[in-house]
């Protein structure tokens, strides 16, 4: 038997804190998913693979040019934006009115393709970025905070705020919202809906680009890394309601907390099972999401 | 003439399949055929729920695992004597999977479309995590299937030749296709398709939607579990990574989607293409861990989704109508 640290208020607080930090990153990943779904009612099953691509971009920027993930972040985001937009133009555009099955499997096919291509190119080993710019930890009132985690969560929060500002305050953002509400009416108002869809995919993937770059400071990088993260993102999107971007912030943090607390209070090995079980309870109780708008 | 062509082709293929092991006596071609039958059978089972009833499950590995674990755990109980037979295990597994599918279905069928698909992924992940941590069934280490001598149908183990495995796999496929065909032509099949096309309209016409979805899930789960038992008896080792992963659930869907969802022959066609394709890429391009067959699968699925969501069957039908 492994001895777990005894359950004290300190351990609990520490857990809540790290769950909170991780939850903010989950929220950012989920926000991209939610944005795309809100725009065109298509679930991007390749979302986790976008994250994987972002993390490998950070890794190679470090491995080839010794660029820290934080410094190569703009590059990663641009690349992911391009990947998202290209996915729209090359794949999604053709299945907008296709049966749901085709919509699900188009992005599933993309996921399988990206994952196995990464595996063929770079192998299945776990890679890490060594000696990142930010490392170590700080101690606040007896609690320890990993600095990379702290930077990642603050960065995610900043990206989230930027996204929210863009959607709700800029003209392009309003055009995005209009397209989400009614495609035809929007196009009658002179909005180029095709461009909006491509933009939505670009931004959705860009969010993942930020998250991937931040995660690669402290997380292992391997072809299947996206699977767990994308599952957690689906979970984080559902309670907020698909298409409800601000709602995913709360939901993402909740997922982070449930993951840590489930691990602490029940069993570490079962933490994801706890998250998924709670997800099932939530969607059954309120299929439209806790803060659902449709 | 056309009405005769279908059955004739079916019996011709069946005859060819029956004669195959007599011509090809080496283990390798037989193994490829066995895996084609197994995947075709699993995809046919999935097709009952997803293709005809329109409920896209991405968690069918749960039922496959149920079948594999039921028979293996039973077979390891020496004190049961002949009652531990894998055949009983197969029946038990199918029953358990059907029961489990009702427990799972009761909540998840309240969801629709994408939500349903994601919920089934979540169920699959929960089950896999639980089994990984369940020491009584081997946990993450998995279970070896006890070796029984001599080779016999009663023991459901054949170490000398793959021939009997071949015929068992073929029989399972014929069973699955037979059930599928029977469903398509029965009232149940019409109900399934009505639910697939428009759930609300089906309910308005008096179809008990929830009950029929559950029925589709039970049939699909039981058949999938039988495939799971076959896999365990064929490979002799099972663990959560081989019989319960999300990738297995997806592979089964890919087979059906490529061939043609909602058609009788689609899953068979899909398996007949994907399994040899996997073999060819593995032999030609080689290298362990280089998932090149999956690169091609992924591309194929994207192309099929965009060009012809009905799969290859729809392409063929379009072609034959034109000529």
Architecture overview:
The complex is a heterodimer of chains A (294) and B (323). By secondary structure, chain A is mostly helical. Chain A has helices spanning 9-40, 47-65, 73-90, 100-122, 147-169, 171-181, 183-188, 193-215, 225-240, 245-265, 271-285, and strands at residues 137-140, 143-146. Chain A has a two-stranded antiparallel sheet. With 323 residues, chain B is an all-alpha fold. In chain B, 74% of the residues lie in helices and 1% in strands. Chain B has a domain at 27-243. Chain B is globular. Chains A and B meet through helix 4, helix 9 and helix 11 of A and helix 5, helix 11 and helix 13 of B.
Give a nutshell description of this structure.
Chain A has helices at residues 9-40, 47-65, 73-90, 100-122, 147-169, 171-181, 183-188, 193-215, 225-240, 245-265, 271-285, and strands at 137-140, 143-146. Chain A has 294 residues and is an all-alpha fold.
Total strands of chain A: the figure is 2
Oligomer designation? heterodimer
User: Within the largest sheet of chain B, what's the order of strands?
Assistant: 1-2
Strand content of chain B: under 5%
CATH topology of chain A: ABC transporter involved in vitamin B12 uptake, BtuC
Low-pLDDT residue spans of chain B: none
Q: Which structural class do the helices and strands of chain A define?
A: mainly alpha
**Estimated share of beta-strand residues of chain A:** under 5%
* DSSP, total strands of chain B: 2
- The first-to-last residue Cα distance of chain A is 48 Å
Q: Which helices and strands appear, and what pairs or packs with what?
A:
The complex is a heterodimer of chains A (294) and B (323).
Chain A: H1 9-40, H2 47-65, H3 73-90, H4 100-122, E1 137-140, E2 143-146, H5 147-169, H6 171-181, H7 183-188, H8 193-215, H9 225-240, H10 245-265, H11 271-285
Antiparallel strand pairs in A: 1-2
Chain B: H1 2-23, H2 27-52, H3 61-75, H4 86-108, H5 113-132, E1 143-144, H6 163-185, H7 187-197, H8 199-204, H9 209-235, E2 237-238, H10 240-243, H11 246-259, H12 266-285, H13 292-307, H14 311-322
Antiparallel strand pairs in B: 1-2
